[in-house]
Amino acid sequence: DARVTQTPRHKVTEMGQEVTMRCQPILGHNTVFWYRQTMMQGLELLAYFRNRAPLDDSGMPKDRFSAEMPDATLATLKIQPSEPRDSAVYFCASARRSNEQFFGPGTRLTVL
Amino acid sequence: SQQGEEDPQALSIQEGENATMNCSYKTSINNLQWYRQNSGRGLVHLILIRSNEREKHSGRLRVTLDTSKKSSSLLITASRAADTASYFCATVLYNTDKLIFGTGTRLQVFP
Which residues are within 8 A (CB) of A5 and not within 5 positions of it... i.e. 6 or more apart? Predict the structure, then answer.
């Protein structure tokens, strides 16, 4: 039963701290997406990769956010320094090109 | 701004009734997808309809797509309490892999 996994599931941190979220896409999926979900903004696409190369990160605040894929089995999203307005649920999803996306369970981030 | 706008924002029905949700979008698309999200969980893909298709069925789900009106609808027939969730339409922008989500419809099905 192939699934996208994300760690941690919950993270509470203080403003100014670095936060790293990890995602393991489904084996064989060549496209990986990072989303953020809040009550106010809904689901926003932050960045996505194809074959580990970043294709679009226009939805991401560049000054504090960075997304990487060190290898095909790991995608990371870092926030440094974190701010209270970053509090949200962050989802990773993987897919084969423009087909259905498979979402992970999300990381619920709270920045105090 | 988000690509898709959905209505209604919230819908409450009794078990056994049908639920219809509508989605409008703004630009050319490769395909349109519907997802479901249970409270506190990740999204689950329900159905995908390509831009050259007009209607698609999957179990109790029926999706229509009108590219001339840039709109889609999701019909859930014979609803069940377990269908209670938020439903999102998402469009894949033409010539990209970007999936842009609508605002979602919160469906409550009462037993």
Answer: A23, A24, A104, A105
Residue type, A91: F
CA angle, B83 then B88 then B93, to 5°: 150
Tell me if the bond preceding A70 is cis, omega within 30° of 0: no
Residues B53-75: tens digit of each pLDDT = 999 999 999 999 999 999 999 99
Tokens standing for A58? 């226009």
Q: How far is B38 from chain A (nearest CA, A)?
A: 11
Q: Are B85 and B56 in contact (CB under 8 A)?
A: no
Strand partners, B25: none
The dihedral through the CA atoms of A63, A47, B106, B37 has a sign that is: negative
Contact (CB, 8 A) for A31 and A50: yes
For chain B, what is the mean pLDDT?
A: 92
- Alpha-carbon gap: A60 to the closest alpha carbon of chain B (Å): 14
Size of interface A-B (CB pairs under 8 A): 52
Region for residue B53 given its phi and psi (left: phi exceeds 0; alpha: psi -120 to 50; beta: otherwise): beta
For B105, the closest chain A residue by CA position comes to: A42
Nearest to A106 by CA among B104, B99, B40: B40
Mean pLDDT of B17-42: 92
Q: What CA–CA distance (Å, rounded) separates B70 from B28?
A: 8
